[in-house]
Amino acid sequence: MADGYTGYNKVQEIKRCCCFAHIRRYFFDAIPKGKNRDISCPAVQGVEYCDKLFAYERQFKEKGYSYKQIKNGRLKKEKPVIEAFLSWLEKQKTIKSSKFAKAVTYALNRKEHMMTYLEDGRCSLSNNLSEQKMKSYVIGRKGWLFSDSPKGAEASAISYSIAETALANGLNVYKYITYILEKRPTEEMADIELEKLLPWNDKVFEMCKIER
Known about the structure:
It is a single chain. The chain has 9 helices and no strands. By secondary structure, the protein is mostly helical. The longest helix is centred in the middle third of the chain and has 25 residues, at 67-91. The protein is globular.
């Protein structure tokens, strides 16, 4: 799950998911001033298609759907919306270089990946969550400006990945990092041993969870 950067297409043996938040943003930015609620405006229609998908996603979450139920719900309710959206996109007549033209082109260029997320309930409709988790790293980067070496950059990325994954799993970051440093994981450890140190392990959660 990533934005529309074409460089990701070079990664082998993966399936790409399309981010509908980015698609929605292009259409939202194309809405003329004062036309936000004018449903006759094509750009507003584009936003409405995306909003319909996000509304279904919120319903599934509020109802506590399992991953299997989410998949079935998406196939029943969201797939027809995407099919209608694609049909609508193909019919649009745009003015070259306009914001609306860019929005339509951006969406059509994502056509191949629009329905990938329907294959698995664990997939996301957008990459908003990952972008939010990256913000702390990006903000910090403004302070240190750059890493002095490739190894330093790698170490920094690993450290932030550990911290953000711990947070995402409801752990106290300080406690979790202290815990894994005490266990000193190495490349020689078997997968079953490493599994016991991961933030979603039940024992790790009990030892390092955030106290309410």
